[in-house]
Design brief:
Layout: E1 19-21, H1 22-29, H2 31-36, H3 41-55, E2 61-63, E3 68-70, E4 73-77, E5 86-92, E6 95-99, H4 107-110, H5 124-141, E7 145-146, E8 155-161, E9 164-169
Parallel strand pairs: 1-2, 6-7
Antiparallel strand pairs: 3-4, 4-5, 5-6, 7-8, 8-9
Amino acid sequence: VNGLLMTDSSRAFPKAEILVPENEWKFWMDDGEMSRASKGRMTELFANNRRVFDALGRKVTTYAWDKEIVPGVTAVGTPGHSIGHTSFIVGSGGKKLFMQSDVCNNVAVFAPHPDWHGFFDQDPPKAAATRRKVYDMLVTEKLPVQGYHFPFPALARIEKQGGGYRVNVMSSL
């Protein structure tokens, strides 16, 4: 979200269409949810998200999970890190890749221990359940994954290991 604005609060990408998961947008723009937010991190997140989207004139296009949002890119609900946290399946030429966003923020900790919680997850039990669901799917489907917080080059395959998972970094598809 913060990358959408320049330091002077102008649009970083003035010609870009900003797409936001519909349940994420609904949560952050709901005054009732904001009034119930716990003090500290959550109230700061509400203030920051609204600051950014207000600077954009709240001009966004919302989209639903399990829908193709642009050709070859399907949104996948992966809630827990945030209420509407979303990952993507990118496909082309018969090949697919899972882009996991923040399903696993620290691969050295949360892949082998998927039920452990991080302070940065808004719903820690949901984040842990999502990690297991996604990683089980990646193992079963042998689907490569691009992880925002993986070591370079951020491309891997997931394998079961004990009660958790092992991330095998790949050099290429």
